[in-house]
Please model this.
Amino acid sequence: MDLRQERENRGLIYQFSDEKLFDLYNKWGQSFYIWFDPSADSLQIGNMFSVMAAVHLMKYGNKCYFLVWWATGMIWDPSGRSEERNFLSEEQLRHNQNCIYNQLTSFLDNIKQNYNIDFNYEMVNNYDFFKWMDYLQFLREVGKYITINYMINKESVKKRIEDPDQSITYAEMSYMLIQGYDFFSLFSKYGVKLQLWWSDQRWNVTTWMDLISKKLWETSYCLTIPLITDATWAKYGKSAGNAVWVDKNKNSPYFVYQFFLNSDDSLVEKLLKVFSLKSLEEIDEIVKKHEQDPASRYGQKELASWVVEVLFGKKAVQEVEKITQILFGSEDKINLIKWLDQEEILALKDATGGTKLKGDERKILDLCTQSWLTESNWEAKKMIQAWAIFCNEEKIDDIQKILTKSDSINWIFLLRKGKKVFKVAQI
Model:
């Protein structure tokens, strides 16, 4: 399957600047780039969709430059915001950048080593493009070629200017100039002819292409991918309020698994095509089997397992599947717990937001509160009296009950409130 056909079938084409780019990048040996801003010390699931879009392009023998915007992060993008974002310190930006580099490297090396796909990539810091440039030189090199008329016609800028209750700073206006010089620098230094990014950034990309054309009289390209949105039209796994972090210290593998397990049926095929390395034929089979019995959530399980595997490894998949079976499956929970190893016990505790215990014994009321199963001993008492508290799947009927180490299963207490609220207290 040629490059364009595969990208169309996977839903990875929204807009492109020139039909020629598909012939060029189908022949191997070309380079392109995508970028990330260091606004946090972890990427989000939404970012990983763009990384996978790059992987599907690298499969055709093309090199990707992953650009983390240290310099651009000093200013921030006005797009989609009604006010200027707070500046981060240089120290925080460097920390965030290093974290993102490490995540990208780990993710990409995992794919190369475990899925028999060879590709080439390089990490780039745009600070290197600006560290020797003074302000007057920047105006001559970049500012001379982009008009104010062009900049204020950008939708996100235009809204801020026309709204009497809003404003936009000169620093934010300069943001697109810095971005433009990124593409120009990559084009000049590394021969990067293509930027790959989301459809809502097309205006910016064409601005940067214009800079290359005016300064070098050369042709560059852009290729955008469709935004993946949830039922509320928010960016999937990325927007404020529904962000899912790639760092397992922020979101556990179990949390990520559950996030995808709860995906809407309408998104399963789309997400598999973008996020997985499975062939289109394999994905068709998964979708067909899922449609035969949507209630079983077969498609979501395949999707969730795949995402956890590529992000955290195969061991993590085994852990989250065991945790899911313990909390929501029909098998004997206590028997499953008996065979958990220490890593799996820790994962189970983290997945339920449980706690560690010290000492030889605990009153049941204190145990419920200390594990966050209930908000107070008073609530625990009321729930016990309502026959709604369970410990290791045994109903608690005595508010004075004291639990000791000998009552634990594999050194943990599995606490349950009602049918679905679980906490794990680990000794």
